[in-house]
Amino acid sequence: MMTEPTASLQDTLGRALRDLRISVTDRCNFRCTYCMPKEVFGRDYAFLPHAEVLTFEEIARLAGVFISLGTRKLRLTGGEPLMRRDLETLIAMLAAQDGAADIALTTNGSFPLERVRSLKAAGLSRMTVSLDSLDDAVFKSMNDVDFPPEKVLAWIDESRAAGFDPVKVNMVVKRGLNEDSLLPMARHFNQPGTILRFIEFMDVGHTNGWRMDDVVSAKEILRRLQTEMPLEPLDANYRGEVAQRYRNSETGAEIGIVASVTQPFCGDCNRARISADGKLFTCLFAIGGTDFKALLRGGASDDDLRAAITGVWQKRVDRYSELRTAQTADLPKVEMSFIGG
Ligand code: SAM
Ligand code: SF4
Ligand code: SF4
User: Fold this and answer.
1) 253 Cβ inside 6 Å of ligand 2
2) Is 337 in the pocket of ligand 2 (CB under 6 A)?
3) Which of 168, 173, 259, 338 is 20 to 30 A off residue 243, Cα-Cα?
4) Which residues lie below 8 Å from residue 304, measured CB to CB, with a gap of 6+?
5) Residue 285 pLDDT more than 80?
6) Could you give the CA distance from residue 50 to residue 42 in angstroms, rounded to a whole number?
């Protein structure tokens, strides 16, 4: 059914389309203060009605068209992707696509542990788990729903036991909140099998009250880690990898630092994003997206979808992080929980 991948699809800056992030829901059981603060995402918040969210069939069809255009990596995200009932069914549908891409999941790791095995059995290839601190009080204050770190640690252990290798662990570092958790986290994950990735706090959306002063820079993160760990830089695994990689030369543990704010990597950005309601965004910081739900529900053929994606990508000029200023941080961008990380 699918045509041969078109390796040559490039945007105006010569960047290929390799990576598709799919937000399967805008809902979440956490209220991380840097992502879905309770004051905004409270009881009255209007999440997308069910009918506005892409069905599994629509997502799988769209993913197939992206794969036919050269996309090699699919990442399921949200909101919290495990809030979407029966996510395993979608994973199996994606894994069955011709030219099947690598399928990754980013989750807060708060669901029953048996889900780890069922996700693996469905065809999930990579597991990324978010955990911002090992300290009970700090983690609970960040997820803002009183969720303890031990349960997320158990999800990470279960993921390793199920054969996800490595398991990536994402830690957003925010000044004055969890910067003292840096070293305890690095000590805890100081072994091969997990890759801890420190992420600079970003000005995604416009509800998290971002200020440059809240960013702990990649340089500072590295300096703090180096006070007790011998870290040597590693080459990128592939062009467009977002994390700077380091290896602890004593233990062999790998860590990553994602310097999206202080050392932007737009030049290699090969990622597109589909929001839960089917809009295509070509940048995490985009203000608007292209409505693919309308195309899917309006009877578009695969060729029509291919032409629409090609049209959007070939016009792409995004390099928000390279142009970031105090003014751009205030623009009405789309929320992280809507577009996915
Ligand atoms: N709910 C899932 C989770 O938390 O892993 C998936 C969605 S979440 C939006 C994806 C990733 O974005 C998480 O690792 C989260 O920590 C990160 N994130 C959210 N808001 C952020 C911000 N303002 N700056 C940097 N990273 C952020
Ligand atoms: Fe939910 Fe993930 Fe955002 Fe936290 S970072 S509120 S877990 S979507
Ligand atoms: Fe890619 Fe936009 Fe992030 Fe730059 S700012 S790396 S273009 S998502």
Assistant:
1) no
2) yes
3) 338
4) 295
5) yes
6) 19
- Residues 112-148 pLDDT 10s: 999 999 999 999 999 999 999 999 999 999 999 999 9
Q: Residue 179 phi/psi, 5° resolution?
A: -65, -30
* Residue whose CA lies nearest to ligand 3 atom number 2: 283
Q: Does CATH place domain 19-339 in 3.20.20.70? A: yes
Ligand 1 binding pocket (C-beta < 6 A) is 28, 34-35, 77-78, 80, 106-108, 130, 170, 172, 199, 201-202, 204, 208, 336-337, 340-341
Q: Which ligand is nearest to the CA of 339?
A: 1
For the question of whether the overall pTM of this predicted structure is more than 0.90, the answer is: yes
Q: Which residue's CA lies nearest to atom 21 of ligand 1?
A: 35
Q: Where are the domains of the chain?
A: 19-339
Token pair belonging to 252: 């062999």
Share of the chain above pLDDT 90, in %: 79
- What is the per-residue pLDDT across 83-115, written as a single tens digit (0 to 9) for each? 999 999 999 999 999 886 799 999 999 999 999
Paired residues of 104 in beta bridges: 75, 126
How many beta carbons lie within 10 A of that of residue 305, not counting itself? 20
